[in-house]
Automatic annotation (TrEMBL):
Keyword Nucleotide-binding applies: no
PANTHER family in UniProt: LACCASE-13, MULTI-COPPER OXIDASE
Cofactor(s) it depends on: Cu cation
Protein family per UniProt: Belongs to the multicopper oxidase family.
Function: Lignin degradation and detoxification of lignin-derived products.
Record's protein name: Laccase
Annotated source species: Coffea arabica
Signal sequence interval, chain numbering: 1-30
Subcellular location(s) per record: Secreted, Extracellular space, Apoplast
Catalytic activity: 4 hydroquinone + O2 = 4 benzosemiquinone + 2 H2O
InterPro entries assigned: Cu-oxidase-like_N (IPR011707), Cu-oxidase_2nd (IPR001117), Cu-oxidase_C (IPR011706), Cu-oxidase_fam (IPR045087), Cu_oxidase_CS (IPR033138), Cu_oxidase_Cu_BS (IPR002355), Cupredoxin (IPR008972), CuRO_1_LCC (IPR034288)
Length: 574
């Protein structure tokens, strides 16, 4: 395994997913504030064999997972996307701030109309004051089940990590695999109103691993020498599932999350919600041998089905005397509902002080309930949810509806009427015992394209409160165009009188996706310093499809550096 290098560009991994890098001079132009990286992404179908069967999936450049993008803080990316697939598609650069470039953010019908089959669109954006691990993925329908890849951001030239430079640098992308076509799985769920079929396997860098049938030949391996320090960039690209991750007999030192450095701490296991990334250092200090990396579900919704399998990869010491055919040691993973382990992990995350300060004087204090609900329907094939209902999801009892005539950003920028309203409620329309017994009047949400407007520079606080209409559940909530500080988390109903005094305003974790605790709450703060239209949603794709989302409009400030750039000439049309 070669170490990742910022002075290189990606090609397909050999032996399944091994990175080989070429000199960056062929694809990078000189730029006064950083390099410019040019890439072409061809979205296309490819036949792939997993779990003893072959079927066609959607990929980028025929690779699964897709190409790893390796850049430095301050670099610019220019990525031309050609859609040769049979579906509309957009790509989202998850966690990239997209300062003044919301046209490159990617969620379909929010910042752009999708790229239609045969069409092209070029995403142009600059990495500004971000280092660590992000990723990219499709943001249309459920295509991100197979359309995704890592986005690695190295420090600027002449700058170092806030930890010793590792010997090896390896992206570890956790995913889900279905034997069926993923669009068919989505369509069935949306037609019936029931929960979607769960995945047939989890994957590490596209491979299920030794514990599944017909899978051991492709199992991903990391080779290290005794004494090596390995930086693992762990990404949860799973469509619908939070995941635990661990390595047998090895401690992990957490050093970053969501492209923000964090104060180091040791742990045996980490938990990532869909969309989250965690950077960990592994010291190869155990007896030379073979050790499984493993991931399995963290599932919190009562009675809900989930994929209860385990994916594995192998850490193999190069100087192992046991040979490459010995059985690796399997780690012990937490139980699927082990919230205590999850809480112990997340409570240790602390950010390293930076130029970004935690807002203390709040201009917009918001309170959003998040969770699932039901829509009453007549018994039949389109009414297969619990007790003759269809599943729905909402924030503040509003189930988000995407437009189809144009994107929200185009409607805002061009003053197109009739696409959205500005009446998203800042607090729940009705207060109730959110995590207790919920009155039936709150089971069914209203549907609408309701947005909330923020002034440029506003200091924003959002309380995210889980609800128990169907079941309390851990929800990974992602804010596009921003990172934020997680100043508090807890269980039960948020109480401003008692919980506010416990906020961490000194070194709270900095994230772009926050897992709201099951039956609990999380409070985030950020400065609205990036104008545009920004989606705020659950990163479980079934929940997003049911409406667990809303969008913010952040107004322009003063001058060019506080104003949305004009739309590019090749912006797709609906």
């Amino acid at each position: 395994m070669e170490a990742l290098s910022p002075l290189s560009t990606t090609k397909p991994w050999s032996s399944g997913f091994l990175l080989a890098f070429l000199a960056i001079l062929a694809t990078v132009a000189s730029h006064p504030n950083g390099d410019i990286h040019y890439h072409e992404f061809v979205v296309q179908a490819k036949s792939v064999t997993r779990l003893c069967s072959t079927h066609s999936i959607i990929t980028v450049n025929g690779q699964f997972p897709g190409p790893t993008l390796a850049v430095r803080n301050g670099d610019t990316l220019v990525i031309r996307v050609l859609n040769r697939a049979r579906y509309n598609v957009t790509l989202h650069w998850h966690g990239v701030r997209q300062m003044r470039t919301p046209w490159a953010d990617g969620p379909e019908y929010v910042t752009q109309c999708p790229i239609q089959p045969g069409g092209t669109y070029t995403y142009r954006f600059t990495i500004e004051n971000q280092e660590g691990t992000l990723w990219w993925h499709a943001h249309s329908r459920w295509l991100r089940a197979t359309v995704y890849g890592a986005l690695v951001i190295f420090p600027k030239q002449g700058f170092a990590y806030p930890f010793a430079k590792p010997k090896l640098d390896v992206p570890i992308i956790l995913g889900e695999w279905w034997k069926r076509d993923i669009i068919s799985v989505m369509r069935q769920a949306l037609f019936t109103g029931a929960a979607p079929n769960v995945s047939d396997a989890y994957t590490i860098n596209g491979q299920p691993g030794d514990l599944y049938r017909c899978s051991n030949r492709g199992t991903f391996k990391v080779y290290a020498n005794s004494g090596d320090t390995v930086l693992l960039r762990v990404i949860n690209a799973a469509l619908n599932q939070q995941l635990f991750f661990t390595i047998a007999n090895h401690q992990l030192t957490v050093v970053g999350a969501d492209a923000s450095y964090h104060k180091p701490f040791s742990t045996r296991v980490i938990m990532l919600g869909p969309g989250q990334t965690t950077d960990v250092l592994l010291n190869a200090n155990q007896r030379a041998g073979r050790y499984y990396m493993a991931a399995r579900a963290y599932a919190t919704a009562r009675g809900a089905p989930f994929d209860n399998t385990t994916t594995t990869a192998i850490l193999e010491y190069r100087n192992s005397r046991t040979g490459s055919f010995s059985r690796p040691i399997l780690p012990q993973l937490p139980a699927f509902n082990d919230t205590a382990t999850t809480t112990a992990f997340t409570s240790q995350l602390r950010s390293i002080p930076s130029n970004y300060k935690v807002p203390t004087q709040i201009d917009d204090s918001l309170f959003f309930t998040v969770g699932l609900g039901f829509v009453n329907c007549n018994p039949g094939p389109t009414c297969q949810g619990p007790n003759n209902t269809r599943f729905a999801a909402s924030m503040n009892n509003v189930s988000f509806v995407l437009p189809r005539r144009t994107s929200l950003l185009q409607a805002y920028y061009q003053n197109i009427p009739g696409i959205y309203t500005l009446d998203f409620p800042p607090v729940p329309p009705v207060q109730f015992n959110y995590t207790g017994t919920v009155p039936r009047s709150q089971w069914q949400p209203v549907f609408g394209t309701k947005l909330y407007k923020l002034k440029f520079g506003a200091n924003v606080q959002i309380v995210l409160q889980d609800t128990g209409i169907f079941s309390t559940e851990d929800h990974p909530i992602h804010l596009h165009g921003y990172h934020f500080f997680v100043v508090g988390q807890g269980f039960g109903n948020f109480n401003p009188q008692t919980d506010t005094g416990n906020f961490n305003l000194v070194d709270p974790p900095s994230r772009n996706t926050i897992d709201v605790p099951v039956g609990g709450w999380a409070v985030i703060r950020f400065v609205a310093d990036n104008p545009g239209v920004w989606l705020f949603h659950c990163h479980i794709d079934s929940h997003l499809a049911w409406g667990l989302a809303m969008s913010f409009i952040v107004e322009n400030g003063r001058g060019e550096l506080q104003t949305v750039e004009p739309p590019p000439a090749d912006l797709p049309r609906c």
